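The authors assume throughout that readers already know how a fold can be written as discrete tokens. In essence, backbone conformation is discretised, so a fold becomes a row of integers matching the chain in length. A single example would do more here than another paragraph of explanation. For illustration, here is how one protein appears when written out as sequence plus structure tokens:

…
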Amino acid sequence: MKRGRTKLFLTLMLSLALALPATVAHAATTITSNQTGTQDGYDYELWKDSGTTSMTLNSGGTFSAQWSGINNALFRKGKKFDSTKTHGQIGTISINYNATFNPGGNSYLCVYGWTKDPLVEYYIVDNWGTYRPTGTFKGTISVDGGTYDIYETTRVNQPSIIGTATFKQYWSVRQAKRSGGTISVSEHFKKWESLGMTMGKMYEVALTVEGYQSSGSANVTSHTLSIGGSGGGGGTPGTATKVEAEAMTKGGSYTSNISSPFTGVALYGNNDLVKFTQNFTTGTHSFSLRGASSNSTMARVDLKIGGVTKGTFYFGDSYPAVYTISNVSHGTGNQEIQLVCTSDNGTWDVFLDYLEIN
């Protein structure tokens, strides 16, 4: 039975419930102790050395965090890599997010991660509590509507991803606090390298809340991590940004994760959608969507940018294919991109794998 047809079964609610497919999105999960895993296409980790912590894993890249009486605790969602490629080899990395942040003491709202060879712990700090990070001043970078001060520090015989070690820390600290917007992560990496701050092979990039000897809370209400072609990030024609459907924010009554014919998202009825925010520096791009129909009937999904329909993707059968809408004109800056079902007639569902922007 198809999800978008509940009006035909108003008197058969039990039967409907039993008929729902097994790909229903998982409910939020709360963890309270050290744990790593993957959810909705994002790698997550809760790490602490002492105290009381709680992390609720919501859909996509979103999560909430609470802590009290801790020495040090980190809550994060992002992507872990295999430490074999540099950031340049991986492609342009950017994060778009919104959060509420109540530090209650020493805490950071930031992009956080590590590289190996050399071993580096890095921070791009958008907001903080009672302590603003500092160190050896290296310069500034103006990006994403603000200016960040750049610092370098050294940790001697301290915990790290390879055990106790001595390593550099790199910092970009925004001059004016904020709790939402775009963070062009790769631009910070490139600026650091231009200042002689060597980056290694990528181990991790994650939107992170860190608390130190404090109590507080935070709620990340939206979070999209984009990893694209070299130098791209959706900003420059000829380069690419690829966003997995399961990493987008879901909307509508029936939108659900799927594991077949690929790991992705299914839209089962009209107004089902997935969406994310992309920062564009230019106003024309091509959009390629990999997807499939649930059967041999033509399935359709509209592309909306900034609330305006820009075209329709078509998938003619259940075998995954890529459909491209070329030379799409749109606004610049932060734009909400939606993939939305509007023409469902009860004969098909549409399955979405990823969207690539060139």
